[in-house]
Amino acid sequence: MTTLDVSTEVAQFGELRILWDRRVLRPRPWTTAQSHWAAALSPYCPDGPILELCCGAGQIGLLAASLTGRSLIQVDRDPVAAAYVRRNAAATGIASDVRTAALTDALGDDERFGLVILDPPWVPSAQVEEHPEDPVGAIDGGIDGTDQLVLGLGVALRHLEPGGHAIVQVGTEEQVEIVRALLDGVDGREARWAVLEVRDYRPGGLLLDIGHRT
């Protein structure tokens, strides 16, 4: 049996140096696009902290915060990942309230955000073995890869201000269509939110801008 190497490594992520080890997901350079897109939308969003859900080592939210001057609330269920977020936030001098919790337990009912970043695990369970260097818990999104995506999207939109935006990472065009279908009407109620734009960074993934339906 091979012993997992848990020595701390450093990844360059935009202007930031991010600490991580192989118990958490390696920072992907392409995901700096998510931080930059969030930063570009920030002037058009209500004031306040950025919310990042499924944050891993925290790099996407931290880079967005460094580009916007906003503070952060970052959520991950993995205590190892949360510990790295705290170390990375301290090293970069960015104010982050890091919460180690399940998505549904992390926020108070009255907390609202103008800008949300969602980075859920989106690899279908049957394809997890194709990524042997990645920790299963950080990438396994269930049968079609959308278990945490759907859950996280519900949390994000429940706490998103009416004029806000959510920048969401997914893996496939099929997952984009699942998100569209969810936003087109839940439980027969009038749809409030829509996918405003999709940007394709494959083989990395796709990014969605979700905002108020016009």
UniProtKB/TrEMBL annotation:
Which Pfam families does the entry link to? Cons_hypoth95
Biological process GO annotation list?
methylation
* Signal peptide residues on this chain, from the entry's feature table: none
Keywords associated with the record: Methyltransferase, Transferase
SUPFAM superfamilies reported for this sequence = S-adenosyl-L-methionine-dependent methyltransferases
Q: What domain of life?
A: Bacteria
This protein's name: Methyltransferase
